[in-house]
Write a structure and sequence with these properties.
single chain; alpha/beta; six-stranded mixed β-sheet; two-stranded antiparallel ribbon; 27% strand; disordered C terminus
């Protein structure tokens, strides 16, 4: 059976900065069959959490996507976290060494990331309010009547894959060597990618495939998500970041370096 997953590299500034990628895989052959970078066409409306959630949801239902992985935080640090716990953000952020950290609401590290973090948390909330959408949970193989949603951090997923992480967009890295490394490591079919955001979205989609039993190994990190009451409303806290490894045990260290360096 062919199944489909979707990866999203979240951005809050403009539609053109939102990366997307769709990956199909064959359960019987246990392999990836198709990769489409830049899968979602940006609508001609302002970018808001509602608009992005609607665009993702419409695509997921039309393409019969079984899981969506989002590169962005789903919640805030649990205010009950003991002071002795290392790190300033959520457990998953400490384990995955994310650059931005979500502290106890409304604090973020650095403070300049607050708008983006609130945007991402809101997108998760909007998606999880859609009919039949369920947050992926490694402790419970709960099937969603529509699709699962999960959080990822591509930089950590590159590392767990045994690959050199893609440098930040500001460094303007050559994309082709990193794409080739992914294709080699996961046996992806030939594909092309035009933007940094879409390449990160491919990595996000790989975590989604692993989370639903596709041809990759899931590696969730962090603590379970929950919802608490705050100022008369609901506040999402903690949650897992899903990493991914290639099938066959340990990552293939022979492809750790890309670009011949």
């Amino acid at each position: 059976m062919i199944r489909t997953v979707l990866g999203i590299d979240l951005a809050s500034s403009k539609w053109s900065s939102v990366g997307s990628a769709m990956i199909e895989f064959d359960d019987e052959a246990d392999g990836f069959t198709r990769v489409v970078a830049g899968a979602i066409t940006s609508p001609a409306i302002p970018l808001t959490p509602d608009a992005l959630a609607d665009a993702i949801d419409a695509f997921a239902r039309r393409e019969r996507v079984c899981a969506v992985a989002l590169d962005g935080p789903q919640g805030w640090r649990d205010p009950a976290t003991v002071e002795e716990m290392p790190g300033v953000g959520r457990r998953c952020e400490y384990e995955c060494r994310t650059q931005a950290k979500t502290g106890v609401y409304p604090r973020t590290f650095p403070g300049t990331q607050r708008a983006w973090i609130e945007f991402c948390v809101d997108v998760f909330a909007k998606l999880l309010a859609k009919p039949g959408v369920v947050l992926a949970d490694p402790a419970a193989a709960e099937a969603a009547s529509s699709y699962l949603v999960l959080e990822c951090f591509p930089t950590s997923a590159w590392r767990s894959s045994g690959l050199m992480p893609l440098p930040g967009k500001a460094k303007r890295p050559e994309l082709a060597p990193y794409l080739r490394a992914l294709v080699t490591t996961y046996g992806l079919p030939p594909t092309t990618v035009r933007t940094h955001d879409d390449l990160q979205a491919i990595v996000a989609a790989l975590t989604a495939a692993a989370a639903v039993g596709g041809p990759a190994v899931p590696e969730p990190k962090g603590a379970p998500a929950s919802v608490i009451a705050h100022a008369g409303s609901a506040l999402r806290i903690e949650g897992y970041i899903w990493d991914v490894k290639p099938l066959g045990g340990s990552p293939q260290r022979t492809v750790t370096r890309v670009g011949g360096r």
